[in-house]
Amino acid sequence: MKILAKNRRAGYDYAIEHKMTAGLVLSGAEVKSGKLGQVSLKGSFVSLKDGEAYLSNAHFTPYNRAGNSSRLDPDRPRKLLLHKRELEQLTGYKQAGAAIVPLSLAEDRNLIKLEIGIGRGRKKYDKRQLIKKRDQIRDTAKELPR
């Protein structure tokens, strides 16, 4: 799988417990743009409406060679392709208070897939402890002889 875009902030803001892969409903110009890596998942989220999951607030830069690129909104909600039991599972997590966050966009056998994570939001003190632990691990790795 080739990673096209990553949501780097998601791992910092959320404690990810489970991961899931979903397909996306995209137009042809959005697929071209995605394969070129012109996608931003910053600030994006997954919402559930009427028993379906949607990727909201993800920015697909319009493909410059597409003729109809002006009529597509680059920030429009995009439907996620999931099995019925996966949607029921997501609904259960959402009702339990978990957040559903997009982690990365990848190309898998010429198809664009979205990896989503289910987790809980971290508090400010949790983030500080995470940074402190990461720094300690880095310092000990520097001190050990190779």
Provide an overview of this structure.
- Helix content is 32%, strand content 38%.
- It is α+β, with helices and mostly antiparallel strands and 146 residues long.
- Strands 1-8-9-2-7-5-4 form a 7-stranded antiparallel sheet.
- A hairpin with a 2-residue loop joins strand 8 (99-108) and strand 9 (111-121).
- The chain starts with a strand and ends with a helix.
- 23% of the residues are buried.
- The model has no long low-confidence stretch (mean pLDDT 90).
- Helix content, binned percent: 25-40%
Largest sheet data: 7 strands, antiparallel
Structural class: alpha+beta
Tell me the number of helical segments per DSSP (H or I, 4 or more residues long).
4
Report the uncertain regions. Answer: none
- Percentage of residues in strands: 35-45%
Task: Give a topology summary.
Blueprint: E1 2-6, H1 8-13, E2 14-24, H2 28-35, E3 39-40, E4 45-49, E5 52-56, E6 59-60, E7 78-81, H3 84-95, E8 99-108, E9 111-121, H4 124-143
Antiparallel strand pairs: 1-8, 2-7, 2-9, 3-6, 4-5, 5-7, 8-9
